[in-house]
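Re: Re: ligand-bound prediction request (bumping)

Still looking for help on this. To restate: I need the protein modeled with adenosine-5'-diphosphate bound, output as structure tokens. Inputs repeated here so nobody has to scroll up.
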Amino acid sequence: MNIDSLCKFYGGFTALDNVSLGIRRGEFLTLLGPSGSGKTTLLMSIAGFVSPDRGDILLDGRSIGHLPPEQRNFGMVFQGYALFPHMTVYDNVAFPLKVRKRPAAEIKQKVDAALDLVQLASRADRYPRQLSGGQQQRVALARAMVFTPHLLLLDEPLSALDKKLRAELQDELKRLHRRVGLTFIYVTHDQDEALSMSDRIVVMRDGRVVQQGSPTELYDRPATTFVADFLGKSNFLRGKVDAHVAGGFVLARQGVRITQASADGKAPAVGTDVVVALRPEKIGLARDDAPADNRLKGVVSEWNYFGSQFRLVVDTLEFGAVAVVIPAWKCGEPPAIGEPLSLAWDRDAGTLVADA
Ligand SMILES: Nc1ncnc2c1ncn2[C@@H]1O[C@H](COP(=O)(O)OP(=O)(O)O)[C@@H](O)[C@H]1O
Ligand SMILES: [Mg+2]
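Reply:
Sorry for the wait, this slipped through. Here it is.
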């Protein structure tokens, strides 16, 4: 499917600003962005419930922009997409097939298969109120897939569930996606959900697509400070390019020089203000004899223990507070507030990002 230059305006407000996007058959694509970034508007435009003011949506090369929702043949699961309370689980799932006037034998066979898929065959005669929140969402999923839609649109389907149930359903959704090979377009504002579930993530902000790529591409090579900050945590080292070195450059600030690799050998001109994003877990605590491209002295101002890791804040003279995550087993003695130490990282640990 191709989304081509989609715009949506509400009065003078731009909810979708020239969004173009290719969606591959069978992929798990996630739209990720803060609240108000246009995710639901984009999904509703794909579904046909919102009419874009400009642009088009193409399925297998044909425009579907003018088709009403029911002719697009897309399955949908929304956060508050309630089941019909007066219908049994079975009848809820059968509903899309009855609307399509499928023969009774086919309905029975498909509903049974869909309920098997979400492991609710034994609950077919229950009513929604007799099910847990997670079970209800699985019924909604079965109902969205029972008519073999072209693709499945999911708008924050798990956000009403508690953390544990959510993690279970995340795993289940992923398994389901692998098993049925259907295209999923999944909306979330939860970065962990996006990272763990998606084949590809599209990051949105203010109605625009700001970056797209696989979870590892986005996490390891964010293009902007916004993406680096939204997907995980990051330190931002700001300084001026002081010199070029083989495969990278030197960033200087207040007399400290940091060597940074540059992707595909393109280093910004000497004198340019730059920002390097550096993930907390890519920084180590250096003993003086350990080799590292970069070293920075600081003083521990905060530390927290999380069982598997320590998270430190180290105050540095040149770059301010630097967040550091150390696997607990590597840490030895817990650090002490006020303890001076030296941070170390290699030149390819950080990423040059645009300040946007
Ligand atoms: N029907 C509408 N009328 C006016 N503004 C709207 C309407 N629907 C959405 N918006 C605005 O468009 C922006 C994007 O909304 P939405 O797509 O729901 O964002 P998200 O799903 O990313 O939280 C928001 O600022 C929202 O207030
Ligand atoms: Mg939304």
